[in-house]
């Protein structure tokens, strides 16, 4: 149970940090779709596989 709560808190903290980073880096005067994609693409490359790995480990420890 504590592992589930800890993982949920970790995901929320990561989302909070990402939201703050995006909010601080917002520049409406020179909006570029390419620049926007390069800032967000690391989520799909790094965080998405880590999220699936974390969910897999969570499932493993719960069903063990």
Automatic annotation (TrEMBL):
Q: Give the source's domain of life in one word.
A: Bacteria
Residues passing through the membrane, by range: 41-62
Q: Keywords for this entry?
A: Membrane, Transmembrane, Transmembrane helix
Query: By what name is this protein known?
Result: Cardiolipin synthase N-terminal domain-containing protein
């Amino acid at each position: 149970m504590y592992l589930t709560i800890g993982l949920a808190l970790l995901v929320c903290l990561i989302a909070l940090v990402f939201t703050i980073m995006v909010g601080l880096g917002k520049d409406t005067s020179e909006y570029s779709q390419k620049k926007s994609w390069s800032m967000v693409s690391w989520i799909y490359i790094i965080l998405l596989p880590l999220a699936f790995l974390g969910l897999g480990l969570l499932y493993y420890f719960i069903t063990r």
